[in-house]
Amino acid sequence: MGATAKKIPDRDDALGAMTGARYIESLKDGREAYIDGEKVADVTTHPAFKDMIHEMARVYDLQNTDKYRDDMTFVDSESGTRTSVSWMLPKSADELKMKRRNSELWNTHTWGQLGRSHDILAPYIIGMMHRKDDFSAVKNPHCDFGENLENYYKYCMRNDLFLTHALGDPQVDRSETVQNEQRDSGEDLEVALHVVEETKDGVIVSGGKQLSTAATHANECYVSLSATFARRSDPNCVLAFSIPQGAPGLKALAREPVSRWIGTWGHPFRMLDEQDCMLFFDNVLVPWDRLFMLYDATPMVKILGAAGGSVNFNFLGWANLCRAYVRMRLMTAVATMVAESIGVTQYREVAAKLGEMVTYCQVWEHAMEGMEHEAGPSPSGQWALGPGRGLHIWFAQVSGRMTELLRQICGSGIIMQPSENDLANPEIRKYLDKYMRGKDVDVEYKSRLFRVAHDLAASSYGLRQDIYEYWHGGDPNRNRINLFRSYDQSDMIDQIKELISKPLPHGDAIE
Ligand SMILES: Cc1cc2nc3c(=O)[nH]c(=O)nc-3n(C[C@H](O)[C@H](O)[C@H](O)COP(=O)(O)OP(=O)(O)OC[C@H]3O[C@@H](n4cnc5c(N)ncnc54)[C@H](O)[C@@H]3O)c2cc1C
């Protein structure tokens, strides 16, 4: 099938921008995935995964079309390979704009629904590249961690791989003592991912990770520590690396699908159930050249400290910001269309709710413009967006509010709609036409529109999306605390101290 049909590229390959067919083929790599008690023979044909995989493949094909090639791909000057802009290290304001455009396209074509599209982990790895020297500063006789990172970046970039990540420990015991470190309690010490032994080829690791979105259909997983778990006293639990999903001993357990509805029309977002997985590492070999950190968390603590708990937010920036923006606009437009379809837009209460949704969209637009305006070169020569940590945290709460508003505007219609089979049944169709139509819209239009609202705000799919938005950046409270601790208020505090340090200048005493 030629070079482009390779499942797993070799280290020196440069297969270039991913195509749909190559992506689908790449997932037939012997990966071990489980769902609902069943071992999955082929994720690309399994009903729980195939829709999502084909959606990804569709966007990969788009990036190779005449229409989008120049927006979504670029030529790597060192290798001459044309690959995805998601993997571009931006070195100027124009390149940062290209990245914004690419993120807008990825998210517009997937409705802002994919927390883990191809466009998310690529910028994440790029963000780490910016701190390459910190990784090199930790010495190991087997490898240079910073060099490993750079080589890995080039490998992913030139082969346009799709990555996910896994950072947190299993949710077994969140009390004060970190898992694996309960030395005196007699507890099982092997819950968190840890080094079992070193070999000449690499380290053998075992343990669990909770959780990893899209692990069933990503090429590789970047495994590391979250801000919550970065400070560990057991060095065996300190490690960061990347591993192909098909690596022997790596098992992924997928949750129940959140959208099982079938039918020609059905619920439209069922194809965007991106899945979430527990990862179990059972004596998995991580080769030396795939390790970025081992036994010493200094580089990660430094990164997390600098970014206030969110790794290199400035580089991840466009991917997540554009996604949130598309999602907000989608929710607002659906709410508006629903309100119009049942004739309630005129009511003050409904219009104010729609106005609240528009307010969030507009604040987001302003913030994105501001971050672009504040962009500039980083010490490592990359072009980074201006600060936006607060925005990231804010979305965790705004997303939930928008879902609530959409649900409130819909009333009972969000659940009370005929299915496609109901619409096709002549025995009841006349009742549907009469009693289930809307204001100036027929029953078909109305029920299909409301099913979109149901997907977003009432279905198990919609609830999963909401849960994702709340948690995916890590614990929002931890992030707020980190932001609070790093936020410079000294000028205002000094002004207040000055104010209360002496009597008012014109302060005639009131008798
Ligand atoms: C849909 C979804 C997708 C995700 N995708 C990914 C992914 O792709 N990759 C990845 O690495 N992670 C992913 N995550 C994980 C996400 O980062 C975590 O959910 C988040 O960091 C919270 O951790 P937890 O779920 O283990 O909750 P826990 O930490 O167990 O928290 C449970 C409750 O206890 C509270 N709590 C816990 N510890 C403390 C403490 N020390 N002090 C006070 N309160 C505490 C929390 O606030 C919360 O209310 C995903 C999560 C979700 C829900």
Characterize the main sheet: 6 strands, mixed
Contiguous helical run count: 17
User: Which structural class matches the secondary elements?
Assistant: alpha+beta
| Number of extended strands | 16
Associated small molecules: flavin-adenine dinucleotide
List segments where confidence is low: pLDDT < 50 over at least 5 consecutive residues. 308-313
Principal-axis shape? globular
Kindly describe this structure.
- The chain has two domains: 18-306, Butyryl-CoA Dehydrogenase, subunit A, domain 2 (Beta Barrel), CATH 2.40.110.10; 309-493, Up-down Bundle (Butyryl-CoA Dehydrogenase, subunit A, domain 3), CATH 1.20.140.10.
- Strand 3 (73-75) and strand 4 (82-84) form a beta hairpin.
- It is globular and about 75 Å long.
- The model is unreliable at 308-313 (pLDDT under 50).
- It has helices at residues 20-26, 50-62, 69-72, 93-109, 118-129, 132-137, 145-159, 298-307, 313-341, 348-373, 389-410, 420-423, 426-435, 443-457, 460-471, 476-486, 490-500, and strands at 32-35, 38-40, 73-75, 82-84, 139-140, 143-144, 163-166, 194-198, 202-213, 220-223, 239-244, 250-254, 276-287, 291-294, 376-377, 383-384.
- Helix 9 packs antiparallel against helix 10 and helix 10 runs antiparallel to helix 11.
- With 511 residues, it is of the alpha+beta class.
- The longest helix is centred in the middle third of the chain and has 29 residues, at 313-341.
- The chain binds flavin-adenine dinucleotide.
- Residues 116, 164-168, 171, 174, 210-213, 226, 276, 464, 467-468, 471-472, 474-475, 477 line the site of flavin-adenine dinucleotide.
- Flavin-adenine dinucleotide binds next to strand 7, strand 9 and helix 15.
